[in-house]
Structure prediction request, 485 residues.
Amino acid sequence: MEIHYLTAHQLKDRLEKGQISCTEIVKSIYLRIEEVEDRLNSYIRLEKESALSRAGEVDKLISAGSDIEDFMGMPVAVKDNICTKNITTTCASRILENYIPIYNATVIDRLESRNYILAGKANMDEFAMGSSNENSYFGTVKNPWDTDRVPGGSSGGPAACVAAGEAVCSLGSDTGGSIRQPASLCGVVGFKPTYGMVSRYGLVAFASSLDQIGPITRDVEDCAAMLNIICGHDRKDSTSINMEVPDYKSFLKADIKDMRIGVPKELMVEGIDREVKEAVYRTIKLVEDMGGIVEEISLPNLEYALSVYYIIAPSEASSNLSRFDGVRYGYRNVEAESLREMYRRSRAEGFGDEVKRRIMIGAYCLSAGYYDAYYEKAQRVRTLIINDFKKAFKKFDVLISPTSPTTAFKIGEKIEDPLTMYLSDICTIPVNLAGLPAISIPAGLSGGKLPIGLQIIGNVLREDNVLKVAYSLEKAIGFTCRPGL
Ligand code: GLN
Prediction:
């Protein structure tokens, strides 16, 4: 297989055997970028020069006898809402077009300590709001499987570049599905860890009680290896969990005998494509063949998850995004004649439509007269959803569902109709509301052309069960297709 399609662990193996150098890896990724990037637009910024010079340094370390750790010398794409010191971090917004952070996000520091290589900053929906990557100030990202279709969102860039061989893996952020849904539409693996397992320090906030950083990789093994690096306590994030991080790679065993797997019937309802449902039924059969026990279960309050999310997420967003006022950093309208006018015009010109829509919904839900009716009520229903999951996990080790109700849809198909677009995350949003870990793995191709994703959800801090089932199913499904781009 071409070098640009190898996984990080396969490349590590070749580095160890001296069959390849890190410089060759980086060069092959950049050759691929030159070949496909003008058709995909998955990056906002490339870091070719610094990547090649870092690769040279890593090669020197290796020839001096240094141990080769996971992701050492691996070109990684980073979603452009994760702060990288001295490198623009735009959130795909005009308002941050020229913003250069003076610090690294904690996840970046951790990767740097392992000698990773930053391939570039990946494209996304503006401020991570969207499900199709059509909301980027830097243009729509295309799906590598069919460039007339969306890659999903908001981490469309991070997912597309891993699927197309433009990076070995990437980091995304997931507030309501933004890692799992694009991973599903692009035929790669995406993981959202338990809320608090990965530091949010340096992740530009969208909805702070839901946001979580996680990896997008070519297989489950790379995903576990990346979790080993990015998970763990950080005193700079007050919601970071203070506990010892397990070795996630130790859970990669293809053994799910006697594991109990629930299928929430609310996530298999109308609106889910027939082929997507069939793929889930096929995996259920595989689980049973491997000795797992599968049963249907009802989580009645999931019905309200989307409504709850579209109150809580915009409310938190409207508050988080109030800092972008044209004063301290970011875009400023310089023609305004008064302070008020400067605020108004900077924000009106700096933010895109979807971001404005969310700010308005959020400000409305939090306003004095409506707070109890909307925000507080939503928080109460959120608790009911959490309780549904708690109950389910008394009986089951993991739950499975489709990741996305459909495969990749056409560019332009849903952009004029926000409510239909919001439905794209119906299966992933409940997981964020409850702070649970969940993965999306490829489960087949619809019509032999477009990837279908399977979601595996675990209880809080039970990444072990999620990885075990994901690893076993990945082996059983044997998805090895690559986009023919
Ligand atoms: N698509 C959802 C939204 O638009 C989720 C986004 C995300 O997870 N960042 O809010």
